[in-house]
Amino acid sequence: MLIFMACLLIVGALTSFWVAVAGAPVRRVDRQRVAAYAVVEQPTMLNRMATAVETKVDTAVKRSNGRLFTAEELALAGIAMPVSNLVILMGCGALVTIAAGLVLLKSLVVGLLLAVAVPIATKLAVRWRTGRLRRRFSDQLPGTLQMIAASLRAGHSFPRALDAVAKEADAPMRPELARVVNETRVGRDLLVSLDEVAMRMESEDFRWVGAAIGAQRETGGNLNEILDQVAATIRDRQHIRMQVTSLSAEGRLSAIILMVLPVLIGGYYALVAGEQMAVFIDSGIGKGLLAGSLVAYVLGGFWMRSIVRIEF
């Protein structure tokens, strides 16, 4: 019975994977217009099911108002996929983990716990990719400001200098500056566009740049010298940040090992000694110990995170 349920879950997961990757067929021309001149091929049952599933998931995602993921968050993470397709892929992964729990461990509870871990792991992966992109943006900022200042010294206006740097810079600085230039061309205020970039990249340093440009607009002054000073300040802050990162590297590595080790040991013993590990699920005392260990595990993770995460 467990094997039969696992097979059904695997079939459902493969179907969900096909829906997420292939998606519903796109109609470029209205069916009624084509029907007057040619024979229209009727969609298969699988295509109709894919369309129905994708529509339902997309509606549910829109109703959630981006509680799990947003399109902008996926774009920052470099995931060229609609939110609904990613949700379907997570459902596919959840079904596969449930099937693995039924077949390998013969436990539906373990499979459900693994299924719950799928969206959590996906959220953490998206945040990690987004954080890496934002760190690259911060690293590129001093050099970008120096390029803008050099272009201003050459006699260009600030919008023209921003456009030139946007064409020469690397990602992720290039698309962000190009977005500012395009928004400015259609009449949006420059400072508003710069503030949105700072919010999207969560960069306090870039917010300083917008404040410096706003102050220069109101009081006057040499903008290229102001940008040089801001770039020097940002570079000093990054130097201090790298020193702090290097000094806390040992603590961060220890925290990662301490968080990963219990999971790996528990998974190993669940595979080689499943009957002994089943005591934690079948008995009341085992469930209590498992729940207490989970609470202590989460609290310890937050505690170690607060120790190794230094904000300044």
Descriptive report:
The chain has 312 residues and is mainly alpha-helical. Helix content is 82%, strand content 0%. The chain contains 15 helices and no strands. It has helices at 2-22, 31-35, 45-64, 71-76, 83-105, 108-153, 158-168, 173-185, 190-201, 204-219, 223-247, 249-272, 274-277, 279-282, 284-308. The longest helix is centred in the middle third of the chain and has 46 residues, at 108-153.
Order of helices and strands: HHHHHHHHHHHHHHH
Which oligomerization state do the chains in this entry correspond to?
single chain
Radius of gyration: 26 Å
Secondary-structure class: mainly alpha
The major pleated sheet works out as: none
Overall tally of structural domains: 3
Summarize the model shown.
The protein has 312 residues and is an all-alpha fold. It folds into three domains: 1-23 and 42-106, no CATH class; 134-236, Type II secretion system (T2SS), domain F (Receptor-associated Protein); 248-312. 82% of the residues lie in helices and 0% in strands.
Based on the model shown, name its key terms.
312 residues, mainly alpha, Receptor-associated Protein, 3 domains, 82% helix, 0% strand
Helix-strand layout with pairing:
Blueprint: H1 2-22, H2 31-35, H3 45-64, H4 71-76, H5 83-105, H6 108-153, H7 158-168, H8 173-185, H9 190-201, H10 204-219, H11 223-247, H12 249-272, H13 274-277, H14 279-282, H15 284-308
Helix pairs in contact: 1-3, 1-5, 3-5, 5-6, 6-7, 6-11, 7-8, 8-9, 9-10, 10-11, 12-15
